[in-house]
């Protein structure tokens, strides 16, 4: 296979435009470039997450997602092109079902906290939501297939679930938990006095 990159500093973007995959040039502030940039940022954050300790199956899943996000970015860079396959969305659905089945039911909203890996997974989740919004905005202007939007929507959900999985994975063998929002409703529900009153 031939080399795809011949040089990095082309200076062709000095005028505030950038080239798309079909050789057209658009403003670096265009909706398409914003969507491409958010997907690229998401992929970079997942790369950072992969620096953390995690179960082997989660690592393999995230590496696969990085490749799929690269396909998604490529599709966004070529108007009218299809690169992200429908089975990529189905794969996220399957991963969601698999990992969610291992988790206890949520008692309350949780904070983006806990282990560093879990916190970074939440960062990835929020960037995925931003990328989804950017793709939705682009789709209101240009014709897009539903797969990119669906993929990012599923991925943000999956990253939430993986954050919970990662909060339970401790290298020392201990079992962690979610970090719950300290809401008045949860405090009242877990107050021993309230439990005693309800039993009488």
UniProtKB/TrEMBL annotation:
The answer to whether UniProt assigns keyword ATP-binding to this entry is yes
The family database entries (Gene3D superfamilies) matched by this protein are listed as: Cobalamin adenosyltransferase-like
Task: Enumerate the InterPro entries for this protein.
Answer: CblAdoTrfase-like (IPR016030), CblAdoTrfase-like_sf (IPR036451), PduO-typ (IPR029499)
Please indicate if the UniProt record lists Transferase as a keyword.
yes
Organism domain of life: Bacteria
A GO biological process of this protein is: cobalamin biosynthetic process
Name the Enzyme Commission number(s) assigned to this protein.
2.5.1.-
Q: Where is this region: Disordered?
A: 1-23
Similarity field: Belongs to the Cob(I)alamin adenosyltransferase family.
What NCBIfam families has UniProt attached to this entry?
A: PduO_Nterm
This chain belongs to the protein called Cobalamin adenosyltransferase
């Amino acid at each position: 296979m031939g080399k795809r990159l011949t040089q990095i500093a082309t200076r062709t973007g000095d005028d505030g435009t950038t080239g798309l995959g079909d050789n057209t040039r658009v403003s670096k502030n265009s909706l398409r470039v914003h969507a491409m940039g958010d997907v690229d940022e998401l992929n970079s954050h997942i790369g950072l997450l992969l620096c953390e300790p995690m179960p082997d199956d989660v690592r393999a899943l995230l590496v696969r997602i990085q490749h799929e996000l690269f396909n998604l970015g490529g599709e966004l860079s070529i108007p009218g092109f299809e690169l992200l396959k429908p089975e990529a969305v189905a794969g996220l659905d399957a991963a969601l079902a698999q990992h969610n089945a291992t988790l206890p039911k949520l008692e309350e909203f949780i904070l983006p906290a806990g282990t560093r890996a879990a916190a970074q997974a939440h960062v990835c989740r929020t960037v995925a939501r931003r990328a989804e919004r950017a793709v939705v905005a682009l789709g209101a202007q240009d014709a897009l297939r539903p797969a990119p939007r669906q993929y990012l929507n599923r991925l943000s959900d999956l990253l939430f679930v993986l954050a919970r999985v990662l909060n339970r994975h401790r290298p020392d063998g201990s079992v962690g938990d979610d970090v719950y929002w300290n809401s008045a409703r949860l405090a009242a529900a877990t107050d021993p006095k309230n439990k005693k009153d309800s039993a009488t």
